[in-house]
Structures are given as structure tokens and as C-alpha cells.
Amino acid sequence: MNRFERLLKRLDLQQASDNVFVGGAGEGGVGAEARLFGGLVAAQAAMAAQRACPRFPMHSLHSYFLHPGRPERDIEYHATRTKAGRNFEVVEVHARQGESVIFQLLASFQQPAPNVRHQDPTPALNDPTSYPNRDQLKGRAHWADMPIDVRMVTPITADEALPPDQQVWLKTNGILPEDAHLQLAMVVYASDRSLLDTAWRPHADRGEMVGASLDHSMWFHHPPRFDDWLLYDIHSPAAADSRGLALGAIYDRAGVRVVTVAQEGVMRTR
User: Fold this and answer.
1) Candidates 50, 166, 167, 263; catalytic one
2) Predicted confidence band at 120 (pLDDT cuts at 50, 70, 90)?
């Protein structure tokens, strides 16, 4: 079983009781300094929310990372429906390890109602495979087996101060099942990368960054699919008090903006 397959298994949450689901870490779920990767926790929480509200597709989520998770322990996701309307529903999810709530998510669901539509101009959509792999550039031994193939359009952040802008192409390193809940959860998982790194780019000449996500929000303008490459266009408008803010736009190969992302996190020099 490769890393991509293990990630799919981790997103297949086990139901412990009514609206209580259990997940864990494993390959693809452990980030820097042996901490749980925030994208995995957010993706599992998104799966729990969708399981608790199967009627409508999710249109937004807002979440907070409250405490570092322990990768060797399972996580219980407690989902509570806080609004059940005719066109909108809201689900709150608390991720628990023991007595500690490590993550909190609010997700809103809407019955589809096509009407108005516009978006910002689409960035250039060049061939994703013409760009280098981010994990290979970082010298990671298992770069070819990572769950997400990340290709750098902009230069990788090193020790030179650069503008707070970054573009990467994202693609799963395997075939996703035809499951709308899983497709969305995988986009949530992939979205928690390159955000704080983009906010750090103007300060990269100060040394190595130590960072941690504080919150993470997403708006799904269209049901996201991860069958093909997605362009992640990221900009950091501000940083202050050791916190950096990053905004991201995710486009499909046709140039449609499918998701908008916002994240703030702690940034310090090691």
C-alpha cells in the first residue's frame, strides 16, 4: 500500500456511534517536528461533517487549530448539526484526543441554487508537468510517493527575500473514487500547504521559519474535483505580530475558480 492509498484509508472514517467518527494519522499525516499535518485533521473533519449532513454539498468551512495533535493516537470527530433549514445546514465538528479538543470546524451546506456568477481573471494555465516537483527540490527521499504531486510555478522559498506570491500545481498521486465527499476532503487536505510559506517569502533572508497554522477557511464556489491538475494561486497581503495571512485561489484546468482559501498562522525565525 503506497502513501496515497494509505491516505484514502485514513479518510475512510470509522463510525463509533451516532455522528461520532474515528480517524488517525499514518503516512501523509505527520508534518514537521513529528506533529500531525493540519491538512489531514481538516480533511478528516470535513469528511465527518459531510457524513453528518448528506443532504446538501458543503459550500464553506471555517476552522481553528487549537492544540498540536499526537500522531500515534486516533482522533474522535464529534459532529453536531447546529442548523437544519430548508436550503442551508450547518454542522460543527470537534476533533478530540482524549479530553483535549485539538481542532474545531464549522461547515455550511447549501442546496444548489445556480444564479449569479463571476470570478477574477484566471492566471496563466501552462503545462503543470513542465515544472519541478516541490518535494524533490526539498530533497525528500520519498518525493515520488507523496500523496499529492506539487509542482512549483514560482521559485521555491529558500534564503532570499521574495515577493509574497506563489503558484503551485496540485494533483493526487493516484486515482480518486467517484465520491464527491472524498473529492472535497482531498482538496481540503491539499489546500493546507504553501500558505504560510508564501507569507514567509519576504522574510526568508532572516533564516528558517518555524510556523503553525492558527485557522483555515475555505469557500467552495463549485463542487471540487481532484481528477486532474489544480492551480493554487497564493498571495499574502499582510504579516504582523508574528502572524502571517495568506489567501489562495484554486482553479481547475478549464480556468474555473472552484475554491477560495484563507489561513493565518504563527511565523517565527528558528
Assistant:
1) 263
2) very high
**8 Å CB contact between 200 and 156:** no
In angstroms, the CA 179 to CA 47 distance is: 11
Nearest 5°: CA angle at 70, between 218 and 177?
Answer: 50
Q: Give the per-residue pLDDT at 1.
A: 87
Query: What is d(CA 217, CA 203) in angstroms, rounded to the nearest whole number?
Result: 24
Contacts 24+ apart (CB under 8 A), 116-119: 119/221, 119/256, 119/257
pLDDT of residue 28: 44
pLDDT band at 34 (very low <50, low <70, confident <90, very high): low
Q: Which residues contact 200 (CB under 8 A, 6 or more apart)?
A: 157, 209, 211, 244, 267
Residue 213 designated active-site: yes
18 is annotated as an active-site residue: no
pLDDT (tens digit per residue) in 193-214: 999 999 999 999 999 999 999 9
The answer to whether the CB of 153 falls within 8 A of the CB of 131 is: yes
Catalytic residue from among 44, 63, 192, 233: 192
To the query of whether residue 263 is one of the catalytic residues in this protein, the response is: yes
From the candidates 63, 166, 194, 213, which is the catalytic residue? 213
- In the block, which residue shows the cell 464527491? 180
